Amino acid sequence: MSNRVVQGRMVTPEKLAELVEGESVLEAESIADADRDCPDCGGDVISVGYMPSVTEFVTGYKCQDCDWSDDDRGD
Fold it and tell me: Is the pTM of this model over 0.90?
């Protein structure tokens, strides 16, 4: 499935990546189920792989029900 509903809005993979990253991304892969629950509200979490720059690939995670998001950068 390419588009998903996030917080009541239909989003594309690119838009989901932008929600996680906070700015535009170069490219995004398909949205997938993350098989985990949101630590804030317990809602379903989805994931998207994307490239914020030409030298970086990130997997971002976003709750479908609240504002929580994270990525795999290991900050």
Answer: yes
